[in-house]
Amino acid sequence: MTTQKTYRHEIYQRAVLESFAKLNPRWMVRNPVMFVVEAGSVLTTLLWIQALTGKGEAPTRFIGAIALWLWFTVLFANFSEAVAEGRGKAQAESLRKARQDTPAKKLRGVANDVQTALSKTEVVSSTALRKHDLYLVEAGDILPADGEIIAGIASVDESAVTGESAPVVREAGGDRSAVTGGTRLLSDWLIIRVSADPGEGFLDRMIGMVEGAKRQKTPNEIALNILLAGFTIIFLVVCVTLLPYSLYSVDAAGQGAPITITVLIALLVCLIPTTIGGLLSAIGIAGMDRMIQRNVIAMSGRAVEAAGDVDVLLLDKTGTITLGNRQAVEFIPVNGVNAHDLAEAAQLASLVDETPEGRSIVVLAKEKFGLRGRVIGSSDEAPEGMHFIPFTAQTRMSGVDFDGTSIRKGAPDTMMALVQSHGNHLPPDLKPAVDNIARMGGTPLVVARNNQALGVIHLKDIVKGGIKERFAQLRKMGIKTVMITGDNPLTATAIAAEAGVDDFLAQATPEAKLKLIREHQAGGKLVAMTGDGTNDAPALAQADVAVAMNTGTQPAREAANMIDLDSNPTKLIEIVEIGKQLLMTRGALTTFSLANDVSKYFAIIPAAFASTYPQLQALNFMRLATPESAILSAVIFNALIIIMLIPLALRGVPYRAVGAAQLLRDNLLIYGLGGLIAPFIGIKLIDMLLVALHFV
Amino acid sequence: MTLYSWLQLIIYLAVLILLAKPLGAYMARVYMGERISLDRALGPVERLVYRLSGIDPRAEMDWKVYAVAMLAFNALGLVVVYALQRLQGVLPLNPQGLGAISPDSSWNTAVSFTSNTNWQGYGGEATMSYLTQMLGMTVQNFVSAATGMAVLAAFIRGLARHTTKMLGNFWADLTRTTLYILLPLSVVLAIALVSQGVVQTFGEYRTVSLIQPSAASESQVIAVGPAASQIAIKQLGTNGGGFFNVNSSHPLENPTPFSNFLEMLSILLIPAALCYTFGKMVGDTRQGWALLAAMTLVFVTLLSAAVWSERSGNPAFTAMGIDQKQTDINPGGNMEGKEIRFGIANSALWATATTAASNGSVNSMHDSYMPLGGLIPMWMMQLGEIIYGGVGSGLYGMLAFVIIAVFVSGLMVGRTPEYLGKKIEAYEMKMASIMILVPVIVVLVGTAIALMSEAGRAAIYNPSAHGFSEVLYAFSSAGNNNGSAFAGLGANTPFYNTALGVAMLFARYWLAVPALAIAGSLVQKKKVPESAGTLPTHTPLFTAWLIGVIIIVGALSFLPALALGPIVEQLMIFG
Question: Which residues of chain A neighbour B426 with C-beta distances below 8 Å?
Fold first, then answer.
């Protein structure tokens, strides 16, 4: 808690300093709205200096106060950006520590085992490693570069990247062959082919992203900037033309003084959308930051934005929709066999079956019939001891032999063949039982004792709790869910119905996935998917929002535009919400910013022309004390509102899974109507405070 | 407002909205190239036009070609109208032997008529030859209106079609609009107006004896001419350039309450019906109704304010002992500058309608309205001529606001904004911003230049807040292609002719070309299918939001200027 406080304290301290550093006009010009404010600040400051020499167009104190608050407006906007960046920077620094130069054992040729490799190593700096080089790492070494394992198996501490302290296993081949530079080998050895040149590795990209240093404006941000620039130009014209109008009016009315430059600049700054203009950058950075907080690294801001637009989610069944494993839910005896006997046989056959399915059979037998897994080995009951037959791809069954009894369990076709090959008849009710389970989306396992069929175990995919509600929410958001599974259509249909997905792709091949994505995209839809395997890479590259699991292969990670460090496939849903929040925050603050202007007119217009047309005081229904206090109150409100909205900009407007129409109505009420009313109250309060402090 | 005022407004709006659907559906068929009943009669004429001009009406154009064709055609029109005025002295059909018109006035009038503004800086009868009137003004009355509608048709196709570049053929749209929409409607309206006593003759001016002869004169010359035919297209095509100098307050241009009703109806008829055309062409008529509802709500609100303001009367008259109470023979309220046969309601209705649409014809003198009553027409124009607006131009101007409204509200529902399945991105925002920016800049900067220059100030007859309003009104009118005048400003001077001409040019083409650019960008995009996450744009909520955006942008852009003109004037009168 204390450390977090100091950590925050540091961010704020640094952000204050950076707010000043960012005053550099070359930096400010990237943001047209705030650039105009800075130019106004400079101008009013010059006017103030002029006033100090006794030739001021208005009271020195007034011009000075306006200039001061205009500078605050710029600084507050810079501060918001600096705070947003600061959070990323702190993270980047810890990542950078992991990326420091490390010695690398580079290989001068190909090697497939540690002995050969050792004879060929030369120690170089990690920066000397290039793509396609080979290197060796042994227990305790820091991996010098990203790569693909070509030989070996080892456990790796990836906490530097993922923050997860439990080590992970990495091995050649398969879906766990990618390693990241900066992580540490805990055991064994690996021979690795480098997949990225120095400075282009995964960590480098991550650091670049979280730092926001190379942050490109996203398409939507550019579009919004154009709109804001448009409004800025309109208000610039409004304020500039007000001077000749005022000169003419003074002339025509024969009284009063023309509007001062100070007031014009104050009016301009109040009118241009400074609230959204000042916070726009912070909103974007904070959006990326929210991804990072959920352990998702987005490769570009564009991807975060696109996430909000997703129409179709492709979700892998296993691990996302269902718990990773099937579980036994029922014993179905056949041929008049006692259910207790079947359960006992099934349990015996599964005693050493360490797969989740096997364990679930033992548990089910215990729960339903009170059977306890009996002692393994020689005992009174089993004098010869139990001899377990493990599952192999050739036999496609497993089981146990003891005491002259053999029990087997396995896939129905294999088991039926086994029964028949020993000249036994298949019980007539076996096949219907098997088919029935398949129809319900389950997996049947047939159990036989001494080559006589006893019955069937019903293994079932367990749909994750709460997932159906989650999909219902997504449907309300207008997002269609598609389940991807390797199962046959029959099983897929049953699970799809139970989980409440809108559609499914059964017996999915990489080609079928790619085709499905293309079909949706051709219909104008945006598709998001998760993947980890190399065979997912083409589909990931095709998808608009592609999230790769950090445990995935290098090709998958390269094809994706986001990487989930937790490797949690359900996270796609959160990613969509973050994307939506980002856009909503922009929209809400734009509305708020523009709605604010109405009240500022009522404060400034009567004040600005008080000397020429005192009748305009009728518009001053806030009853602001003096023209000066009115204008200053508007400027102060305009500056303070930026500070007050920084938390909202960083946190984001909360997203709720309701229809678009309801979202719009709620947000219009809060930010539109609220934006209309709030400044009337705020300006009045500031005015009262200024009077109380005897400033005016 | 009185019961009769209400009744007239309600009947007017009811007829307008009832006609929107059939006329809108008919126009949609015209633009979609479907069979229409007039094919048989006018088809041969259409084909003849194409054959004579060597045009293939089926050759589709992308937005750039379409824009170039539109600009080239309008440039040609501008040159012809200018040349006719400069050369009319040596050209035929000039019995009065009128000489060449000054370069600045010719320029102003040429721009004015090609840009569908029809601001008249000249006195028609005294300066223009018959040839100039016929080949210049009358032709442009048709084709400037048809140009606006053609651009709209292209814009709508940009939303309706997808993954192509083609927006239609400008020449075909221009021809079909004139032939199948503007001509038939004008014929019907002209005949109806003649039945009410609107003059239509090639005969000479009449000299009649005065009923109450005075010492000074016993007779009066009554100007006549082929008025009904020109008034019809002037009203229907949101042109507004009157046959007579006092426009539709003239008894021979607008003699009866019924002729007044017909003329007012035809101001908004096509712009309102185009909303339905839009819905029909994009395949969702609800979208068209939503826009029409937004326009009508703003219209009714501002109209009520105008009627109320004029009905309340003028305190200055009270001081002078003028009776402003409503009786059977006295319409009551501020009747200065209004015709007795129209009264308050029909004058205020016309003033609001003519400025809501970019028509600019008048049946009362806006300069004599109460400050608030005068503010309404002025602000209607400053909103960008999108409350119905000019034929075609009003709706594409409105759609620019829709794009802005969709963009901000789309963000608020957490998606990249899309309208009718088309994503609104940076390019569309750039062009839509230009469309909203340009009129505002033209009006404000134009007014500022006029007030800063000696020539500009010299033309102001009432140097006061009211004088400020007069200049602001002139530039609001030119800068939004309306064409109505507040009067009180001697605008037929080289300065105003030139400045207002430039304003009209900017207001027309700096909107039409970006509109086509948006269409050209949208037409290439895929159509995103609708889902529960899509922002619906046909709901009352969105309509309300759209109105909010229009009002906020209009108010924020012009409140300071209006404060120094009509607002302070109103406060001065009523304290």
Answer: 219, 222-223, 226
- Where are the strands (E) in A351-497, listed by range? 387-389, 397-402, 405-410, 443-449, 452-463, 480-484
Q: Which of A316, A353, A544, A687 is catalytic?
A: A316
Mean pLDDT of B371-391: 95
Q: Is B571 on the interface with A (CB under 8 A)?
A: yes
**DSSP states of A75-138 as a string?**
HHHHHHHHHHHHHHHHHHHHHHHHTS--EEEEESS--SSHHHHHHHEEEEEGGG--TT-EEEEE
Q: Is the pLDDT of residue A616 over 80?
A: yes
- The answer to whether B534 faces chain A, any CB pair under 8 Å, is yes
Percent share of chain A, pLDDT over 90: 34
Asked if A247 is an interface residue toward chain B (Cβ–Cβ < 8 A), one would say yes
What span, in angstroms and rounded, lies between the C-alpha atoms of A505 and A374? 43
Instruction: For residue A657, give the chain B residue with the closest CA.
Output: B533
- ipTM, two decimals, is 0.94
Name the packing angle between helices B139-160 and B227-236 (round to 10°).
20
Q: Do A660 and B415 touch (CB under 8 A)?
A: yes
Q: B491-537 pLDDT, tens per residue?
A: 889 999 999 999 999 999 999 999 999 999 999 998 888 887 888 99
A668 at interface of B, judged by CB pairs closer than 8 A: yes
CA angle B255, B184, B120 (to 5 degrees): 55
Residue A585: closest C-alpha in chain B: B412
DSSP string, B141-161: HHHHHHHHHHHHHHHHHHHH-
Q: Assign A692 a pLDDT band (cuts: 50, 70, 90).
A: very high
Do B413 and B402 form a contact (C-beta atoms < 8 A)?
A: no
B220: pLDDT strictly greater than 90: no
Q: Are A202 and A210 in contact (CB under 8 A)?
A: no
Q: CB burial class (10 A; 0-12, 13-18, 19+) of residue A462?
A: middle
Closest-CA distance, B528 to chain A, in angstroms, reads 5
Measured over all CA atoms, what is the biggest interatomic distance in chain B, rounded to whole angstroms?
80
Q: Rounded to a whole number, what is the distance in Å from the CA of A556 to chain B's nearest CA? A: 27
Report chain B's mean pLDDT, rounded to a whole number.
92
Residue (of B348, B297, B287) closest to B536 by Cα position: B287
User: For residue B363, what pLDDT is reported?
Assistant: 94
Helix A219-253 to helix B465-478 angle, to the nearest 10 degrees? 140
Over range A657-685, report the average pLDDT.
93
Residue with tokens 């014929």: B187
Residue A1 is predicted with a pLDDT of 40
- The answer to whether A229 faces chain B, any CB pair under 8 Å, is yes
A204 is catalytic: no
User: SS3 of B370, please?
Assistant: coil
Picking from A510, A552, A554, the residue whose alpha carbon sits closest to that of residue A194 is A554
Q: How many CB pairs under 8 A join A and B?
A: 213
Q: Considering CB atoms only, which of B412, B560, B571 is closest to A238? A: B560
Q: Is any Cβ of chain A less than 8 angstroms from the Cβ of B353?
A: no
Contact between A663 and B412 using a beta-carbon 8 Å cutoff: yes
- Cβ–Cβ gap B448/A591 under 8 Å: no
Residues A571-584 have pLDDT tens digits of: 888 888 899 999 99
For residue A393, the model assigns a pLDDT of 67
Of B412, B452, B468, the CB nearest to A584: B412
CA distances, A9 to each of A73, A211, A434, A648 (Å): 22, 18, 65, 19
Cβ separation A664–B463 shorter than 8 A: no
Q: Does B524 touch chain A (CB under 8 A)?
A: no
Query: What is the average pLDDT value for chain A, to the nearest integer?
Result: 86
